[in-house]
Amino acid sequence: MAKWLNGSCLKNDVVISSRIRLARNLEDVRFPQDMTMEESKKVTDEILDAVKEWKSDKYEFHKIGDLSSLERRVLIEEHLISPSLIESPDKSSFLLRNDEKVTIMINEEDHLRVQILSSGLNLENDWNELNQIDDMLEDRLDYAFSDKFGYLTACPTNVGTGIRASVMIHLPCLVLTGYINNTLQAVNQIGLTTRGLYGEGTEALGNVFQISNQVTLGETEEEIIQKLNNVILQITEKEKDIRNKLLEVRRHEMEDRVFRSLGLLKYARIMSSRESMKLFSDVKMGIEMGILKDMNSNTIDSLMILTQPASLQKYFSKDLIPEERDIKRAELIREKL
Amino acid sequence: MAKWLNGSCLKNDVVISSRIRLARNLEDVRFPQDMTMEESKKVTDEILDAVKEWKSDKYEFHKIGDLSSLERRVLIEEHLISPSLIESPDKSSFLLRNDEKVTIMINEEDHLRVQILSSGLNLENDWNELNQIDDMLEDRLDYAFSDKFGYLTACPTNVGTGIRASVMIHLPCLVLTGYINNTLQAVNQIGLTTRGLYGEGTEALGNVFQISNQVTLGETEEEIIQKLNNVILQITEKEKDIRNKLLEVRRHEMEDRVFRSLGLLKYARIMSSRESMKLFSDVKMGIEMGILKDMNSNTIDSLMILTQPASLQKYFSKDLIPEERDIKRAELIREKL
Q1: Contact residues on chain B for A266, CB-CB shorter than 8 A
Q2: Which of A140, B35, B100, B108 is the most buried (most CB within 10 A)?
Q3: pLDDT tens readout for residues B19-55
Q4: What is the CATH number of domain B3-241?
């Protein structure tokens, strides 16, 4: 189980996780997509030196090139690194804090991407922590910064604060009742953006949506965090309201749906990733609605990650073709439930 | 559980039950559809007297008019009486043998319908037993009989031997592979007929087919029984062959199908009759194919009956509207599995 899932944050049932990352670049070095090997080494060394000077936190350093393809994909599935980080394996690396909550990515799309990850909704505390890390790094590094634009970044969508805060939120009852469309529309209208579980262009498998800020320019970091946080609290409220109403007027159907999904998870012998996400969603909802007692929502959150292709192969310590994966996925789920 | 399901006959997995019935009428009394109340009493008394003279078997006598609507429907669902028997409740009655294997129906479509019912394939033994009962009755009653046509019956389709032998057979793998169509066609071509679980015009729910003789004229009873028996053995063989092949080449899919259905039966909170029949079919197949150990096919056979609307209401001792039935059906299934 990814360590960050055990986070001791205030638990918001509907929110699976929150994440904030900052994009930073060193002055007078080309952005990663244009840099030479030499430049990439220079950037890496400077960042490593900067981090080394703190005594408080313990980080482990990994070069992408030293990791197997499977290990790289597992880290992505666990949300510990971003998919872009593995695109130039000879230049990219990362520092992972012991508790797996903080990752400092080197030579991703920008020279530096620092992310902080929590289970549940924890944006404000996480921002304070990330801000301190950023300050410590900034004391020791020369960032590319413009008085007019703020922090400069490889992609103009990140210019300014360089912040992206995003929340993974599980909205089965908004989906069930169709309210999700209005909700997502409203979210987009106020400058936030929604995506699926694994970033841009991916579907909202298992009724999990990723909601994040679109704008990085013209608002302070605190305003961005505050706005996202408020929206998430409102959506959470709405989802919970609907859950309560459904429990009142359609209890049997809700119970049936939840128990059937649990039954399938406990008994199936072949299970696709797509189907498992749907069933996990039902069971997670059932736990949170009090339909399923003696089960922990964390088990499902971690299964959502553990049953992804790479994590699954790591768990069984062998390469699996897709057909085998579906069989092993079913096996793993039965074992864990 | 209907007692006849506990039959000690040779068990043929694929065959659920076999049934033979004889249609007979008393001479010089109009057929039931045209008879007066007085005539119906006369017929009833004569038959009761005839039965009373044997000492060997114990029968219980019931007038349809004395039974509640629920009790009547339960008897039909258990295949102990025919649906036609309850159409004129003031004229009709039946004698049920203690072991529930033999029913003597009075004033159904004919004055007398004697049926014998077994779990599994048991046509030849049952025919011998039924033939003896028929002889005992014939010694004591004057049957309407023509030297040219044989036994006369209310409906010309029964004229001659008055025999209908039918077998309920469970053919999930013939259905799964599509061979069922050819099979049923062949069955029809040799003068046998196929219907669903509860007689003419009903669907083959749960992959259960009823195969019976069409012709009652021009063949002896023994020939009719022999032919049906041979056809059933051939179909059974074919079904078993396909089961074995599927186990070889698609084991995982078969296991997945069986276990998923078991999971749904064990976990669902709402279960329609139609869905439950489909799931029972899968589980029964799984037991017989050795996929599910430690489960008994009889449990499923009896659940197939017990979850029918009337039997379900009898079990819970109360009237249930369809929505409640689906909830109670799910409850009963969870309890029994």
Answers
A1: 263, 267
A2: B108
A3: 999 999 999 899 999 999 999 999 999 999 999 887 6
A4: 3.30.590.10
